[in-house]
C-alpha cells in the first residue's frame, strides 16, 4: 500500500485506490488518495522546511542533488521494476532512458546551478546586480507517460534553486515516486523539502488552489493545463507548462532513406506513442512517398508493443482509429487490437498504426491522439512542407530528415516549434531550453531556463558616491 510522504514521514490517510498493470489489467498496487486535509498538511510541511532549505548555500543544495542521484543509483533496480509495473514499458527503455534520466537530471542541475553567475551591471555612478530567490513552495504535477523522468526533471531544478516541493504523481503511475520518497528519507534529505501525495485529478486541483503553493509546474494535456492556468490566475501564480503536441516529421527526397524510416519508426512508436514529442504527422516528398509508406508500414508491424496506460486511454486511441476510417483514411498498417493468446489479451494494447489519405482539416490530423499512430501525406516543395508542418494548433517538436545542410538550417528556423530535431529524434542536452509554442505550452525549462522559472530575481541598485581622495 503506497502512503503519502509528508514532512519526511509516511502518511497513511485517505481512502484507497487501485493501480493497474497495463499489460494485463490486473491490480498491481493500491495507494492512498489525498483529501483536502492531506494536501494542506503537505503544503504546510513544505512551507515549514522552506526557510532553512532556501537559506543553504547553493553549493550545499547541489551536494544534496548529487546525493539523491547516488540514492537513485543504489535503488536503480527497484525503480525500474516500479516503473515497468505501472506503465508496461519495456525493460530496455526503462533501464536506458527513464531511470538514468533521473540520475542525469539531478547531476545536471547540481552543476548548472553551482556554476551560474549572478548578473551585475556597472553604469557611471551606479552598480546594479541581481540576487535570485526561490519561489517558495512549488506544486509539481507529473504525468503518467514518463513518470520518473519528468518528476525528476522538475524536482532537480526546483530543489537546487531553494524551493521545497509538493509532488502529485499521476494516479496511474505512483510507484517510482513512492520509491523516490524512500530515497529522500534514506539520504537524510531534510524533512519537508520533498513531499509526495497520491491521488486523482481533484488532488492536483487542491494543490493548484492552495494559497501556500507559490508556483506550479505541469506536464500533460492541454485541457488540464488550461484548467490549471485558470485557477492559478486567481493568485497570479507562476506556471510552467509543457502540454500536448501534434508533431510533424518532414522527410525530404535527399534524406538517407534507411535512417529516415528508422527515425520515423522511433519517433512515432516509442513508448507506445505516449510521449508529447512523438510524431503524429509525417510529410514525405512525393518522389519517395510510395517507397517510404511501404517501408514504414512493414516496420510498424515489427515494433515491440507497449500497452496504453489504461483501458480508457486505449479506448480513446481506438476511437481515433475508427475516426480515421470514417473520415476516409486508407489504413497502411494496424488499425486494431493485437491478439496474443495469453495474459496480455486483458491488457490495454493497440496495434501500431499508419494511415494516409486524410485532409489536413480532418479531426484525426488536428487532434493529439497520444498513441502509436501517424498519418502520412505527400508534399511537393520545401515551402509546402513548412506550411504543412506549421498548420497545426500545436507547436512542441518537429523532426526533419535531409542530407542538405542548407535546407536543414533553412527549414528548421522556419518551423513553429519549440524543438526541432534534424536527422534524429529526442536527442537531449539538458542545458538547452525545452518547451513548446501555441497550444503546446508556456515557458521553457532546461538549463538556466529552469533556474529562471524556479526563482525570482531581485535587482539591487547602489549609487556609488565619487571618492573625494
Ligand atoms: O526529456 C525531457 O526533458 C522532457 N521534458 C520530455 C517530455 C516529454 C513529454 O511527454
Automatic annotation (TrEMBL):
Domain Aldehyde dehydrogenase: from-to ranges: 15-460
Keyword flag 4Fe-4S: no
InterPro entries linked to this entry: Ald_DH/histidinol_DH, Ald_DH_C, Ald_DH_CS_CYS, Ald_DH_CS_GLU, Ald_DH_N, Aldehyde_DH_dom
Catalytic residues as annotated in Swiss-Prot or TrEMBL: 242
Keyword annotations: NAD, Oxidoreductase
Keyword Oxidoreductase attributed: yes
GO molecular function terms listed in the Swiss-Prot or TrEMBL record: oxidoreductase activity, acting on the aldehyde or oxo group of donors, NAD or NADP as acceptor
Short name of any one Pfam family annotated for the protein: Aldedh
Sections of the chain in a coiled coil: none
Database matches in SUPFAM superfamilies: ALDH-like
Highest taxon above the source species: Bacteria
Assigned protein family: Belongs to the aldehyde dehydrogenase family.
The protein, known as: Aminomuconate-semialdehyde/2-hydroxymuconate-6-semialdehyde dehydrogenase
Amino acid at each position: 500500500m503506497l502512503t503519502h510522504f509528508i514532512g519526511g514521514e509516511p502518511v497513511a490517510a485517505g481512502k484507497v485506490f487501485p493501480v493497474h498493470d497495463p499489460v494485463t489489467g490486473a491490480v498491481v498496487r493500491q495507494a492512498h488518495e489525498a483529501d483536502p486535509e492531506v494536501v494542506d498538511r503537505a503544503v504546510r510541511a513544505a512551507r515549514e522546511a522552506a526557510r532553512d532549505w532556501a537559506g543553504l548555500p547553493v553549493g550545499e543544495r547541489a551536494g544534496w542533488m548529487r546525493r539523491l542521484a547516488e540514492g537513485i543509483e543504489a535503488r536503480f533496480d527497484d525503480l525500474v521494476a516500479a516503473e515497468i509495473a505501472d506503465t508496461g514499458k519495456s525493460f530496455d527503455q526503462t533501464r536506458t532512458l527513464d531511470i538514468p534520466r533521473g540520475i542525469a537530471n539531478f547531476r545536471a542541475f547540481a552543476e548548472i546551478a553551482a556554476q551560474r553567475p549572478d548578473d551585475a551591471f556597472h553604469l557611471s555612478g551606479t552598480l546594479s546586480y541581481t540576487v535570485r530567490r526561490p519561489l517558495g513552495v512549488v506544486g509539481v504535477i507529473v504525468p503518467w507517460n514518463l513518470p520518473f523522468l519528468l518528476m525528476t526533471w522538475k524536482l532537480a531544478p526546483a530543489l537546487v534553486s531553494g524551493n521545497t516541493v509538493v509532488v502529485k504523481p499521476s494516479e496511474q503511475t505512483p510507484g517510482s515516486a513512492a520509491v523516490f520518497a524512500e530515497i529522500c528519507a534514506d539520504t537524510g534529505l531534510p524533512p519537508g523539502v520533498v513531499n509526495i501525495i497520491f491521488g486523482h485529478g481533484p488532488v492536483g486541483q487542491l494543490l493548484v488552489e492552495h494559497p501556500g503553493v507559490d508556483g506550479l509546474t505541469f506536464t500533460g494535456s492541454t485541457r488540464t493545463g488550461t484548467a490549471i492556468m485558470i485557477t492559478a490566475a486567481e493568485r497570479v501564480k507562476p506556471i510552467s507548462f509543457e502540454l500536448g503536441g501534434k508533431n510533424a516529421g518532414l522527410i525530404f527526397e535527399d534524406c538517407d532513406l534507411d535512417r529516415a524510416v528508422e527515425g520515423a519508426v522511433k519517433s512515432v512508436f516509442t513508448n507506445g506513442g505516449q510521449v508529447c514529442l512523438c510524431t503524429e504527422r509525417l510529410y514525405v516528398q512525393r518522389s519517395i512517398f510510395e517507397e517510404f509508406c511501404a517501408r514504414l508500414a512493414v516496420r510498424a508491424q515489427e515494433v515491440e508493443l507497449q500497452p496504453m496506460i489504461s483501458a480508457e486511454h486505449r479506448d480513446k486511441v481506438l476511437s481515433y482509429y475508427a475516426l480515421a476510417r470514417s473520415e476516409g483514411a486508407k489504413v497502411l498498417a494496424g488499425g486494431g487490437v493485437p491478439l496474443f493468446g495469453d495474459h496480455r489479451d486483458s491488457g490495454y494494447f493497440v496495434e501500431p498504426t499508419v494511415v494516409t489519405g486524410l485532409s489536413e482539416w480532418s479531426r484525426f490530423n488536428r487532434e493529439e491522439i497520444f498513441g502509436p499512430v501517424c498519418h502520412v501525406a505527400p508534399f511537393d516543395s520545401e515551402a509546402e512542407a513548412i506550411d504543412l508542418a506549421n498548420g497545426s494548433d500545436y507547436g512542441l517538436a518537429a523532426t526533419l530528415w535531409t542530407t542538405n545542410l542548407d535546407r536543414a538550417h533553412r527549414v528548421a528556423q522556419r518551423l513553429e516549434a519549440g524543438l526541432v530535431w534534424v536527422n534524429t529524434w529526442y536527442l537531449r542536452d539538458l542545458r538547452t531550453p525545452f518547451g513548446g509554442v501555441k497550444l503546446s505550452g508556456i515557458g521553457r525549462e532546461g538549463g538556466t531556463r529552469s533556474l529562471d522559472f524556479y526563482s525570482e530575481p531581485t535587482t539591487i541598485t547602489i549609487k556609488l558616491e565619487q571618492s573625494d581622495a
